[in-house]
Design goal:
Strand order of the largest sheet: 1-2-3-4-5-6-7-8-9-10-11-12-13-14-15-16
Shape: globular
Number of strands: 16
Radius of gyration: 19 Å
Distance between the termini: 35 Å
Strand content: over 45%
Number of helices: 2
Helix content: under 10%
């Protein structure tokens, strides 16, 4: 599910070392406008209901040179909700700093990032509560240069043993690529004796995705309309997975089984970089039609 909203975040980029995120265009702020309509299919089935938010600051990105230092998240009144801070390794003068930890300024929970023995490939993210109780982990598997399998294991009992027990669950995603973009994802969700599956297909434009390589969009409390795996692990909100940041280009449509309606995305560009993205979804139930629209506007730091 390309997502629809933390406690940890991961940055990944297709370079010689993972955990290094150096986009050509560095986002500085994201503004958001929402409108959600419920329209009865006939007059005797109730009234029209509309939920809307005016344009508001949703995210503020802080950079320390080339390194993303933090992302602050805001509610519809532009009030600060929390800030996720990034910590990096010190690999010497010539080596690029590599992400090792992200922590939530409000909840104080955090995620640790573990790489292979050469320090090149990210293998696992571990999520902890503020009192350092392990509550979940995400494991990444690759075929060649691409992530092709993601497994998330969660238990809602802090300090409980793994694998999943009681209210915990396992959530997996198998990713299929066309070139540099993920074009299909098959999901499996298992809790106890119950197993659910779903799948989605994605299409893309040919423009540069400014989120490419930022796993913050997978496991942060993102206003991008993208939910977070790390948030699910530490808050018990349920499995969410956004793979948009893995792809080189911008998603233009996603069709998902198990979710009502298909999503489409329209962009405005400044050259090759998007300055706004409009997400639209419409679905008719037995008694009503649901229309959803979210507009994101991106601001960037000046180019060096």
């Amino acid at each position: 599910m390309i997502c629809a909203l933390m406690a940890g975040m991961l940055l990944l980029v297709s370079c010689s070392k993972e955990g290094v995120y150096e986009p050509k265009n560095r986002i500085s702020a994201v503004y958001q406008t929402d409108r959600h309509e419920y329209l009865p299919v006939s007059q005797d089935m109730g009234d029209t209901t509309i939920y809307a938010s005016e344009r508001h600051l949703a995210e503020l990105w802080t950079w320390d040179g080339d390194n993303l230092a933090a992302i602050s998240y805001y509610d519809t009144a532009s009030r600060l909700l929390t800030t996720l801070h990034c910590e990096y390794s010190d690999n010497g003068i010539f080596a690029k700093p590599q992400l090792t930890k992200v922590w939530d300024a409000v909840r104080r929970n955090y995620s640790i990032y573990k790489y292979d023995e050469k320090g090149k490939v990210l293998q696992q993210i571990e999520a902890y509560t503020a009192d350092s109780a392990l509550v979940g982990y995400i494991t990444l598997t690759r075929t060649g240069d691409h992530v092709t399998h993601i497994e998330m294991v969660q238990t809602l009992y802090s300090g409980a043993k793994f694998p999943v027990q009681a209210r915990g669950y396992t959530f997996t995603a198998d990713l299929f690529w066309t070139g540099d973009n993920v074009t299909q994802v098959n999901y499996t969700y298992t809790q106890g004796d119950d197993t659910y599956t779903s799948a989605e297909r994605l299409q893309y434009d040919k423009k540069e995705n400014p989120l490419h390589g930022s796993w913050a969009q997978m496991v942060g409390p993102v206003s991008q309309g993208l939910a977070g795996v790390g948030h699910a692990i530490t808050s018990g909100m349920g499995p969410r997975l956004c793979i948009a940041m893995l792809s080189k280009n911008n998603v233009t449509s996603r069709e998902t089984t198990g979710i009502d309606g298909a999503f489409s995305f329209a962009y405005e560009y400044d050259g090759d970089r998007p300055v706004s993205r409009t997400m639209m979804r419409s679905y008719t139930y037995e008694t009503m039609t649901e229309n959803e629209q979210t507009v994101l506007e991106y601001e960037y730091l000046p180019e060096d």
